[in-house]
Specification:
single chain, 162 residues, alpha+beta
């Protein structure tokens, strides 16, 4: 399950993925403004792709004002039982990077321990930092989750803006 959650968040960083609309403009100081918009349907497809688990039968993404609710159904390798995982995902920015906070996590009707949630959140943060390190000249300025999609705005420094 950790792989599922980490994979989902890395999808958000890969804003050039299929199903994502990107706008690029130049700011007056020479830096670039990159706007990315991901629809609910595209986000669900990308989550499924990022999970890359043939046992996942269903991925549902519901976008609300300010957060996304994710629900996954995974068939167990042995037998006919399935596992259900759902959680609330709040996205934000801190120091120019994407932040993510899982809450309301339910696995097969039970809530994981606080220590497990803390571990998941720490790993997600570490993955986001590694990904952000690949583009040191960019800063995420805003992220907005609404019922129509996820919108992110980056500022990318160029030789002209430094």
């Amino acid at each position: 399950m950790r792989r599922w959650i980490s994979g989902f968040l890395l999808v958000l960083l890969a804003f050039g993925a299929v199903g994502c609309q990107i706008g690029l403009t130049r700011n007056s100081d020479g830096s670039l403004r990159v706007e990315a918009s991901i629809s609910q349907e595209a986000l669900a497809r990308e989550v499924r792709s990022a999970i890359a688990d043939p046992l996942v039968e269903e991925v549902q993404v519901t976008l609300e004002s300010g957060y996304a609710r994710i629900h996954l159904t995974r068939r167990r390798a042995a037998g006919s039982r399935t596992d259900e995982l759902s959680f609330r995902l709040d996205l934000g920015t801190a120091d120019g990077h994407l932040t993510a906070q899982l809450s309301d996590v339910v696995v097969n009707g039970y809530q994981p321990t606080d220590s497990l949630l803390s571990t998941w959140n720490s790993r997600i943060a570490a993955n986001l930092e590694r990904a952000a390190g690949r583009t040191p000249n960019s800063q995420l300025q805003s992220v907005d989750v609404s019922d129509s999609g996820v919108q992110m705005v980056w500022r990318v420094e160029t030789a002209r803006s430094r």
